[in-house]
Every structure is written in C-alpha cells, then in structure tokens.
C-alpha cells in the first residue's frame, strides 16, 4: 500500500478562493476590507522572503495591506510605538511582527504589545488562553493549518489516537490543545512525545494520526509507524543542494519508507507549509468580521 498524498498546496488554494469571496462580500455589504500590516525589522533574507509572500497573498485576496520595512537599528521603544499606532488604526485588523527580531529587542515584550484582537498570529497569551479553554478567536497558523488538512482530507479525529512528536509553543503544544477540544475536527486522545520520552516508537506506533514537528531530518522511520496511519510532517530541513543550485529539502519523516505504510501523508515541500500563510489570511478575515460586528 502506498499512501495517498495530502496536498497542502491544493487545500490552501481552495481556502484562499473561499477567503477571496468572503473578502469581496465584506467590502460590498459592510464596506470593510480586511487590513493587515506586516512589520519587518532588519534585512534577514528568510524573513524578507516570508513577509513578501504574506503581502503578495494578502493583496491577491483583496486586503488592505501595508508593509513596514524598518532598519536593523530601530529601537525597542520605536517598534512598540509603531505597534501602538496600528493597534489604534481602525483600518488595520491584523498586526504581524516578523520574527526573529534583532537581539537588542525583547521579542516577548513586542508580541505582548499587540492588541489581542489584532494578534492574527495567535501568539498573545490572551489568545493562547482562549485556545486552551476552547474559545479561540484566532488559532496559531501552522497548527490551524494542520487541523484544516485533516478536516478537508476527510480524516476522522473524533476518538482517534493522535501522537505529536515535538512540544514547541509554535506547533506541538497548540496542535495538542486544538485536537483535545470537544469540537468538530478534534475530540481526539492526544499524546505528546519529546526529547525526554523514553520509548518514542512505543507511542508513535499507537498513532492513528501522527504529527511530527521534531526539528530533525527523517527522525520518524517506517518501523515507528502503524500500518494505515495518517502522517503529518511539519518539518522542513535543508539537506544539501540540487545540481541546479536549489536547496534540497526533507521533512522530519523518512518519506520514502513511511509512505509505504501510511494511508495518507503530507509531502515536504507542499504539505503543511502552504497552509501557514493561508491560515494567517483566514485569521485576518475573521478579525475584520469581528471588528465590523459581523462575527
């Protein structure tokens, strides 16, 4: 049996079409355009690439988009003042500060300064707390994307054994909380494995749904996976260059062997990755609706 691919690229495209229609309705009926500002401090090449992609997508969807490119020398006080300005700007519904920030700026202080109603990344403690109690306005983007991949691929989560490898604040902990909720697309029995887990394979072999965010290339091999499991690979690792000079990527799952045991599997690239920016856009549309009193 060879696993069927879960195409994050295709599912993300479908969601973006839905968001484009929703944005058009908001403009027509309520005269509201979802507003997103992305703030970049410095010229980190990866960060510049991410921000460019976010701005491109938001414009394609018809958002009111602003890109704030600030110098590496920007002070923490100046950045906090800029965030405060957009907190008070009624045309802006989502504020995203691209990480990492220069070392002289306290990232925690900056993230906490964003109005929780405009925290479309879902990282503010208010939004994290609401997620934990099942009353989230905005879910963190990568975990939310994983849940959408499962829902839109027809994967039954209700009562399923879900094993998550990795406990980061960005992926592992949030997706565990999301899938624990007594809600549609959740209601699972969740186990989290990490570097302190004594026998990881014992746990991963029990998984109906295995979500891997270990940060280590090919950490999960075929002998660690149950026959017929659904495997979601969150990892993106550079393992060299192609003859054409492009980066060679692999996930945290040994794709070639695991695909022969799994029923469904995400590829790398083209799996979880395309969902992250799309969920940021979904959160921004939701923020605009909340601000307009539509939701």
Kindly describe this structure.
There is one protein chain. This protein has 295 residues and is an alpha/beta fold. The chain has two domains: 31-116, Rossmann fold (3-Layer(aba) Sandwich), CATH 3.40.50.10860; 141-273, Rossmann fold. Helix content is 39%, strand content 17%. The chain has helices at residues 8-30, 45-60, 76-87, 107-113, 125-132, 141-152, 172-180, 200-204, 255-258, 273-291, and strands at residues 4-5, 35-41, 64-70, 94-97, 161-165, 189-193, 209-212, 230-233, 237-241, 247-250, 264-265. Strand 5 (161-165), helix 7 (172-180) and strand 6 form a beta-alpha-beta unit. The model has no long low-confidence stretch (mean pLDDT 96).
Helix fraction bin? 25-40%
Task: From the 3D structure, determine the CATH topology of the largest domain.
Answer: Rossmann fold
Largest sheet: 6 strands, parallel
Q: What integer value in Å does the Rg equal?
A: 19 Å
Gross morphology is globular
Instruction: State the end-to-end distance.
Output: 44 Å
- In total, the number of strands is 11
User: Multimeric state of these chains?
Assistant: single chain
CATH class categorisation of the largest domain: Alpha Beta
Tell me the CATH architecture of the largest domain: 3-Layer(aba) Sandwich
Helix-strand topology string: EHEHEHEHHHEHEHEEEEHEH
| Number of structurally distinct domains | 2
Number of helices: 10
Overall mean pLDDT score? 96
Spell out the CATH superfamily of the largest domain: NAD(P)-binding Rossmann-like Domain
